[in-house]
Amino acid sequence: MDITEWLNLALRWLHLITGIAWIGSSFYFVWLDNHLTPPKQGDASGELWSVHGGGFYHAQKYMVAPAQMPDDLHWFKWEAYFTWVSGFSLLTLVYYVGARSFLIDTQKLALEPWQAIGIGLGAIALGWVVYDRMCRSALGRNNLAMGVVWYGFLVGAAYGLNQVFSARGAYLHIGAMVGTVMAANVFMIIIPGQRKVVDALIAGQAPDPALGARGKQRSLHNNYMTLPVLFIMISHHYPMTFGADRPWLVLALVSALGVAVRHVFNLRHKGKSSPSLFAAIVALIVATTGYVAWEKSGRAQAKGPDLTYADVQPIFAKHCLSCHAEHPVAMPAPPLGVMLDSAAHAGAMAPRIQKVAVDAQVMPLGNMTNMTPQERAKLGAWIAGGAKP
After folding, report:
1. Contact (CB, 8 A) for 134 and 149
2. Structure pTM?
3. Which residues of 293-325 are buried (b: 16+ CB within 10 A; e: fewer)?
4. Which residues form a coiled coil (predicted)?
5. Per residue in 303-362, pLDDT tens?
6. In this structure, is residue 320 part of a structural domain?
7. Residue 199 placed within a domain
8. Does residue 254 form part of some domain?
9. Contact 328, 334 (CB under 8 A)
10. Closest alpha carbon to 222 in 268, 188, 195
11. Which of 3, 192, 227, 356 is least surrounded by CB atoms within 10 angstroms?
């Protein structure tokens, strides 16, 4: 039994479940905030009536705190904590334990695993330090200005990490940086602030309004960072994103799109709309897909009508057949059933070869066999010519 694969599945499933719980509660409370109306009676700052699941709900919000502590108070925190713990565990299992296969790209930088792991952990820690300092500075008093600067920092980090790691590894570390910031906001700012408010109420003191304002700001930031993180979580399934010549630019465009979409929803919750924002979303979609298509057309392989399987078989033998053969020597069975040990097998897999070995260049894993650009171009030419046997 392959314990590593089962552990991978368990962590990925846990990450998905807890992520849904965290994001769901986050989206709900932002929606709730944007739909509150002044109460008809009482000292709450806002209220909302809603219906769900056959019942009616009456939610009230106190801007700082109620006059008296309720007997039972629910804290929304474990969803965030377990999302981060499961995500970091998955990052460790896949990209740190398997650093040579998934994180290191020897064509960019011949790192030892400990060096790559150190850079990755340093980037994650640096992300929180930079973000937190921004929030505490004068810049933090203007959410729009800070958002622009923070976005620029992340784009720069994506560019820098792409010079060091595999494109997938760079993407996942940007996701880890942002995810860590979001979880740290809950663990280090929002929950401690709420605890101080509760302690003040118990002691019969007036809570500090700044604590609630600070927590609300960090919660708002988390709301806007959610969709870019979700994109990164699924991006490894789509090589046309991280496999671009400038994957950091694709990430920047899609992340900007995610932020814009989130802002549209936030405006709609308030009963507002912005035609210019809709136009910006359309422009971002066109820019992203257009850029990827332009890149692909620019590096399209010239057809090689004279190339046959015999011409590319040495490439497969050198870089692929230890795993992708009917009886591989590196593992019990060919991964995903992909076999390249005959003209028929390889021809049937030509589109997949194009996607992972020519376009995205994620195979061989970690490029441990040092497949050259010339060899990739030859494979592309063979495929462009019809993948002839």
Report:
1. yes
2. 0.83
3. eebeeeeebeebeebbbebbbebbeebbbebbb
4. none
5. 556 888 888 888 888 888 888 988 888 777 888 788 888 888 888 888 888 888 887 777
6. yes
7. yes
8. no
9. yes
10. 188
11. 3
Q: Is 231 helix (H, G, I), strand (E, B) or coil?
A: helix
Q: Name the amino acid, one letter, at 331.
A: M
pLDDT tens, 204-244? 888 888 888 898 899 999 999 999 999 999 998 888 888 88
CA angle 190, 194, 200 (to 5 degrees): 150
226, two tokens = 């959610």
What is the domain count for the chain?
Answer: 2
pLDDT in tens, 154-206: 999 999 999 999 999 999 999 999 999 999 999 999 999 988 888 887 788 88
Cα dihedral 57, 60, 66, 68 in deg (nearest 10): -20
Q: Which of 201, 233, 265 is the last residue of a domain?
A: 233
Last residue of a domain, one of 233, 249, 264: 233
Q: Are residues 183 and 87 in the same domain?
A: yes
Alpha-helical (H) ranges within 137-208 are 143-162, 167-184, 191-202
Given a contact cutoff of 8 angstroms between Cβ atoms, the answer to whether 222 and 189 are in contact is no
- Taking the alpha carbons at both ends of the chain, their separation in whole angstroms is 37
- Both 318 and 223 in a single domain? no
d(CA 335, CA 324): 7
Let me know whether 229 and 313 are in one domain: no
Chain centroid offset of residue 57 CA: 34
Q: Which long-range contacts (CB under 8 A, 24 or more apart) does 26-32 make?
A: 26/219, 26/222, 26/223, 26/226, 27/223, 27/226, 29/76, 29/219, 30/219, 30/220, 30/223, 30/266, 30/269, 31/269, 32/59, 32/61
C-beta of residue 358 within 8 angstroms of C-beta of residue 301 = yes
Q: How far apart (Å, rounded) are the C-alpha atoms in residues 355 and 361? A: 8
Domain residues for 317? 309-384
* Domain annotation covers residue 71: no
Number of C-beta neighbours around residue 68 at 10 A = 8
Q: H-type helices in 273-323, by residue range?
A: 275-298, 309-319
